[in-house]
């Protein structure tokens, strides 16, 4: 039938609402776009209410091709449109380094050859009238006979985007991101200025999934505001960090309750378990309490606020390192005294005792310690002790009751941030 590029897909969707669909679809390229195209096609061809009986999703692994062909050969339960989708990896792209299609296909493994032959034969033979096959994959070799068979019998939708760094490639990438942005913000009744778009694109790079997820968070972040600005982007979207709790603990440190509550929701939506989030907060409050104790015991009230980084690095960091060293030495000596004679070997003493009570786990990198040192100044010692009690209560609620985890965490964060 034909082959179209993603940029022409909107026009094809309009036709699909009025015309009969193709019997076979192949959607390939950028994973985010492939999933979007598949979702849009399903929404038009088969209502959500009918998918329990008339829609089958098959994994391409473990004889997935054979299962798809078998399912396509049977009629739907309700004698209506039946759609079978299958994710196929490698079948359309193996051996792409060969000079021609015949040579590349000769390099296929026996299993790939068998799957390709089975699929191609079924496509050329045809399926029952109401059955539709939708295949998704990443890269393809358009010279392959299987690809040509699909193009002849059905519809191919090319969702590939240039991945290079040439000016033309960059423009193509930006165009896709811009269209995705317009779609997401318009669906949510928002707008986004060009500067904000450029800031977001610079932050995420050409990663459609990250870009879209960040944009969804921005929609929630701006609330009732209709416009998403570059200031909103700068406030919310950060470059990828190793610690996904980092922004939340930072908001709690600065007692920014509204921001912390928003981040709680984002972390839960991203798949983090409530106890993971709680553990991150516990570790951070414990560290603040350790620093607060150190501040009061070593410097008193005079050393708690208004400290420059240079002063901290020169005068306070050495004292922290010394305090940590003394702490570890005391723990090792206590462990040696309380251990049995058989355990108190020279080897065990040399290995030392690990503890999470030290302030500077990496003494060679003082800046993170400095930032935490400043954050500890936002709380009194008693406030941090009360926070630890509230954390214990939240832990008990999450583990032993049917309370909504999000509500438990939100109440906890509000209590900590509201402390005066």
Report on the structure:
By secondary structure, the chain is of the alpha/beta class. The protein has three domains: 2-159, 3-Layer(aba) Sandwich (Rossmann fold); 167-240, Helicase, Ruva Protein, domain 3 (Orthogonal Bundle); 274-339 and 354-417, no CATH class. The protein has 19 helices and eight strands. It has helices at residues 9-16, 31-45, 51-54, 64-72, 101-106, 110-125, 145-153, 167-187, 194-204, 208-221, 230-236, 246-253, 257-269, 274-298, 309-338, 346-351, 366-376, 381-400, 405-417, and strands spanning 2-5, 24-29, 55-58, 82-87, 131-137, 155-159, 191-192, 227-228. The strands form two sheets. It has a six-stranded parallel beta sheet with strand order 1-6-2-5-4-3, with helices on both faces. A two-stranded parallel sheet has the order 7-8. Strand 3 (55-58), helix 4 and strand 4 form a beta-alpha-beta unit. The radius of gyration is 29 Å and the shape is elongated. The N and C termini lie far apart (70 Å).
Structural descriptors:
8 strands, 3 domains, 9% strand, alpha/beta, Helicase, Ruva Protein, domain 3, 6-stranded parallel beta sheet, 420 residues, two-stranded parallel ribbon, Rossmann fold
The fourth-level CATH homologous superfamily of the largest domain is: P-loop containing nucleotide triphosphate hydrolases
| Helical percentage | 55-70%
Report the structural category: alpha/beta
Q: Low-confidence spans: pLDDT under 50, at least 5 residues?
A: 344-351
Number of alpha- plus pi-helical segments: 19
* SS strand fraction: 5-15%
In whole angstroms, the N-to-C terminal distance is: 70 Å
Strand elements, count: 8
Going across the biggest sheet, name each strand in turn: 1-6-2-5-4-3
* Elements, N to C (H/E): EHEHHEHEHHEHEHEHHEHHHHHHHHH
The CATH topology of the largest domain is given as Rossmann fold
Shape: elongated
- How many domains would you count in the coordinates? 3
Major sheet details: 6 strands, parallel
Q: What's the CATH class label of the largest domain?
A: Alpha Beta
Radius of gyration: 29 Å
CATH arch. level architecture of the largest domain: 3-Layer(aba) Sandwich
- Overall mean pLDDT stands at 81
């Amino acid at each position: 039938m034909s082959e179209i590029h993603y940029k022409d897909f909107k026009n094809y969707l309009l036709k699909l609402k009025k015309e009969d669909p193709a019997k076979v679809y192949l959607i390939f390229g950028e994973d985010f776009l492939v999933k979007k195209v598949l979702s849009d096609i399903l929404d038009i061809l088969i209502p959500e209410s009918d998918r329990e009986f008339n829609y089958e999703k098959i994994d391409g692994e473990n004889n997935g091709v054979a299962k798809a062909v078998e399912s396509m050969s049977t009629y739907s339960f309700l004698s209506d449109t039946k759609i079978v989708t299958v994710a196929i990896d490698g079948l359309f792209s193996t051996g792409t380094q060969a000079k021609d299609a015949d040579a590349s296909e000769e390099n296929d493994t026996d299993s790939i050859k068998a799957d390709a032959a089975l699929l191609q034969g079924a496509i050329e033979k045809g399926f029952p009238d109401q059955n539709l096959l939708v295949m998704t994959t990443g890269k393809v070799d358009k010279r392959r006979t299987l690809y040509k068979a699909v193009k002849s019998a059905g519809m191919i939708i090319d969702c590939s985007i240039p991945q290079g760094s040439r000016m033309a490639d960059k423009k193509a990438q930006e165009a896709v991101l811009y269209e995705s942005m317009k779609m997401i913000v318009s669906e949510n009744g928002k707008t986004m200025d060009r500067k904000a778009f450029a800031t977001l694109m610079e932050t995420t790079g050409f990663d459609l999934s990250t870009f879209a997820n960040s944009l969804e968070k921005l929609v929630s972040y701006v609330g009732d505001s209709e416009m998403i600005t570059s200031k909103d982007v700068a406030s919310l979207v950060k470059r990828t960090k190793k610690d996904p709790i980092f922004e939340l603990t930072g908001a709690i440190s600065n007692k920014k309750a509204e921001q912390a509550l928003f981040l709680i929701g984002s972390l839960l939506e991203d798949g983090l378990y409530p106890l993971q989030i709680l553990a991150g907060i516990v570790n951070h409050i414990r560290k603040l309490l350790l620093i607060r104790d150190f501040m009061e015991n070593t410097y008193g009230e005079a050393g708690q606020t208004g400290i420059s980084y240079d002063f901290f690095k020169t005068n306070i960091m050495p004292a922290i390192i010394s305090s940590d060293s003394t702490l570890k030495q005391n723990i090792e000596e206590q462990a040696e005294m309380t251990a049995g004679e058989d355990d108190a070997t020279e080897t065990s003493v040399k290995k030392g005792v690990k503890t999470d009570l030290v302030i500077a786990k990496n003494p060679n990198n003082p800046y993170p310690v400095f930032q935490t040192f400043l954050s500890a100044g936002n709380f009194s010692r008693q406030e941090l002790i009360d926070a630890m009690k509230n954390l214990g209560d939240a832990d008990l609620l999450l583990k032993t009751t049917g309370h909504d985890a999000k509500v438990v965490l939100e109440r906890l964060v509000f209590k900590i941030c509201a402390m005066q």
